[in-house]
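Predict the assembly for these two chains.
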Amino acid sequence: TLAAPAIAQSNPKITWRIASSFPKSLETIYGGAPDLAKMMSEATEGNFTLQPFAAGEIVPGLQAMDAASSGTVEAAHTVGYYYVGKDPTWALGSAVPFALNARGMNAWMYHGGGMALYNEFLGKSGLIGFPGGNTGTQMGGWFRKEIKTPADLQGLKMRIAGIAGQVLSKLGVVPQQLAGGDIYPSLERGTIDAAEWVGPHDDEKLGFQKVAPFYYYPGFWEGGPTVHFMFNKAAYDGLPEHYKSLLRTACQATDANMLQKYDYLNPIAIRKLVANGAQLRPFSPEIMQACFDATNELFASIETTNADFKKIWESIKAFRKENYLYTQVADYPFDSFMVSLQRANKL
Amino acid sequence: TLAAPAIAQSNPKITWRIASSFPKSLETIYGGAPDLAKMMSEATEGNFTLQPFAAGEIVPGLQAMDAASSGTVEAAHTVGYYYVGKDPTWALGSAVPFALNARGMNAWMYHGGGMALYNEFLGKSGLIGFPGGNTGTQMGGWFRKEIKTPADLQGLKMRIAGIAGQVLSKLGVVPQQLAGGDIYPSLERGTIDAAEWVGPHDDEKLGFQKVAPFYYYPGFWEGGPTVHFMFNKAAYDGLPEHYKSLLRTACQATDANMLQKYDYLNPIAIRKLVANGAQLRPFSPEIMQACFDATNELFASIETTNADFKKIWESIKAFRKENYLYTQVADYPFDSFMVSLQRANKL
């Protein structure tokens, strides 16, 4: 009969592996991969299976993209800025200093041409990517001593990577590369002076406030970092059309869900952290301004030699201007009033 | 053979109708229904079809929920606050004055127990609902004259509905019910003094700035209104499990997508509106404070007699307090600095 092949055609058995850049202990950001897997499996009655592997299980976390690019795995759940060592353009699909907040990033990605531009770049590595999570604005990190002016950054040994590290090094910071598990003992011994990790919910698990109590905000280098699902393009192109569509839908749902989860968990965590000794400090306007200037200088220099970077950064910059003009008559004044009520203890 | 029944089991043919509360001309908010339909159809190779009908095609826009409740249609794409005439609790799943912004609403809905609480209430009408869009903070509307103090609201005839209308009426506003198409001529003739519609992208189509040039912000009664897909519960319960899961995934993707689209389109529209004569004005702190007080008074009174309202509102209030505490060390200071750069013309 014709029936049997029609079944095979309809929901073919497919098993993919997702290499995650994250450890299972960061269950919110790691959780994007099992969330996607659950949605895909349920919608196809178990026929399209994605198996998530934590950082280190197949490849080290910072090689997840490479594993998908080479076809070792079909998918990576990772963050573009981990790969800036290859090309700074990688960072533009995730977060760069003083760019967009989470909503701005999503608006640009899904409707402002961002996804198409970034995929043009990812295609050169045999990948196609879809947003797969966001943390919201991260924290600026944990400091053993207060820093008040740009001069206080001079010689500061800070665990911070990528473009943010390059920007801060222009102000005298000495960026350090350290795995998650080494941060606490290094802060305790004073071999580093500061460290950035993620945000309250994730930071709370590591107890940094005991060894570096000053908790600075905002993490201006990550206003709304996009986490990505990056798929091996040949594997994606080989899917039946209805699986491709379902995968895009499930990625968009997973993407939204991660931010929703962080937005629920971070408020709880920040209260606990403060109760346990964290001292909240804002970066001073002088420090923010100096870092903004350093960022512009760095990007202007990259743009002179990197056409991919220039093309995408110009698109982000154009939308950034519109985004922060508009927010002044919409969410920002609403939030300002609500924050004023919160401060007056009226909520 | 066994194959034929297996096909039928796998992706059964289902055709549902979605009654939308919106006209096709508001393509962004109306677009949620065709977006969902496209995702569902594509993922099931055309087997699960949802047919969207604009307001008035099957039932009037403000009866979409009733049509899904009674089973006239299987689904409604609507906003809870349209039904406050039946019970003010309907509004709590969408937006009430001085509650949550879009991210806060999503955090509460998906991870803070909001969806379960609201569905307990919707269940009484034979419905189950999932968020299906958000506009972000809306505008406060169009005014023929400037309003500066609460006294200026006295006797003001404003097109505004629901709980916001009740709050403003405590300050002397006379709420008016008018269909979308009647707003412009009424403002022009002066039979009303002010009107709220949605936000820049939707408002721009109607040309209000020509007859009521003062465009106030923020729409404090809609900090982050959730649009809903409401399904007839018996129809939803009758779906195979994999269709249920797929529907939830596609609703979450559609929900995110609407906000992403508004966040891209509104900045473009606000610039055009100002170029065409709209004069932006913030509501004064005095007016905001007076409306906040009036809201608290109204809600305290509703809570004394409405247990459903009280249960859900207490949950929103508890999260609101945490949300606006946390945002002060995360997105809010990041946005503040970016807004300051925008104002200084440095972006």
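Residues 1-8 of chain A have pLDDT under 50 and may be disordered. Chain A touches chain B through 90 residues (CB under 8 Å).
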